């Protein structure tokens, strides 16, 4: 994210050289009413550039086995590099499941774009999201995790115990600085319905809440495209939920019909059971009367026989009554189960309709907000087109003297655009007509230092030199030639580059990595590896004197 509202605290125009202007951070102050998420990426040259396919492969590999075991807790990946925790618990109903993507201590990812590629590929492989939808979700997921970085209480309020148990106060969420990512990142992906076969697996409402959208709007383009894509997802979610609600309502009607049928059956069986019970009671009463008569006349064989037959009749009636009572109980259970089915269908229809209404309302409100933002952007772009602009570099790291390029309004000091390239070395850059030329980069896990060209409009690196440049190297320009110090496995040489970064000449003698380069009318003056002064021919870089 980039801060777009800057106020100048003092008037400045410190000219360092004709085409090299540096502005202090204190001279370009930013004031914002809202907390802004601005990802700090490494945007310099790399020792090795991984292909987009290789980066996406990290995310795809993390998703192995998850589609086959959606409702089971599991861990995948390499803890030292990239891994995922599929934190789900079907026994807890009131909060969210989540996937937690961990960036391990040996991971080399250093740009938010690549973090998003990993997340996007994971979502596509795990939940069958289209690439476009997965890309959109990945943008929101990273901003969401940055907004709520280290806010464990917020995660506790939304997520199930199984999720919270795998989070820490220090590492939950995502830092805005790439230097903090290895070993310190727990990227939470909220899961609305882990078993959903549509686009409702990830909870889009959570990752696009007010704080997240407010932060995204702080970017120069207000992240309009990503927000429009999210609106599209929510509108499709609303349509899906509406269809499910209608189907659930139809099911509820059918199930209610079955309830009524079961109620009628229950009434019939109840009547039959009551009749059987009365018949059993009458038969038992008759049996008792016959038995009494037989007891009073023990010699009367006929009465004895009648008593015995009456008792058998009573026992049969009792058994039939018990069977009817059991049938009644079974029918009542069947009715209760059917009533539960009908109620569940009603609840499903209600919930899906509520979801449809919620997503539709969110989409409508965001569309209105986007339309307003687009007007503001168009107006601002029209105003900027009329502004008198210039370029400068501002310090990004005071300890290493690293800078970034900015385009600013010369009258007000307002920064119009900041370059993503924030590792310009030694506070120096030169104008080569179409581009700027500078030494850029850092020595880190996958970073290196090279001479680069930076496009004036996009303010991004367009080309890198084939040669590694010494970290302490100066950069000196004369006409269309650029002089700096190459680093060849710890041996340092003066190099002369053209506008296209092709190597024109390189000295044979070794020099100190931090040597000044003084240009005279005919020569270059440098400090050789022995600490002595050497004079080099300006064209050939051959040593003239000073041996």
**SSE-based structural type:** alpha+beta
* Strand content bin: 15-25%
The mean pLDDT is 86
Helix content: 40-55%
> How big is the Rg?
39 Å
Give the total of domains.
Answer: 3
Separation of termini?
Answer: 53 Å
What is the element layout, followed by pairings?
Blueprint: E1 6-7, E2 15-17, E3 20-23, E4 29-30, H1 52-62, E5 74-77, E6 82-87, E7 97-103, H2 112-127, H3 131-147, H4 152-158, H5 161-164, E8 185-191, H6 204-207, H7 210-216, H8 224-296, H9 301-385, E9 389-397, E10 402-409, E11 415-418, E12 424-425, E13 430-431, E14 435-441, E15 449-455, E16 461-468, E17 476-478, E18 481-488, E19 491-497, E20 503-506, E21 518-519, E22 523-527, E23 533-537, E24 543-545
Parallel strand pairs: 3-9
Antiparallel strand pairs: 1-4, 2-3, 5-6, 6-7, 7-8, 9-10, 10-11, 10-12, 13-14, 14-15, 15-16, 17-18, 18-19, 19-20, 21-22, 22-23, 23-24
Helix pairs in contact: 1-2, 2-3, 3-7, 3-8, 8-9
In short:
With about 550 residues, the protein is α+β, with helices and mostly antiparallel strands. It is built from 9 helices and 24 strands.
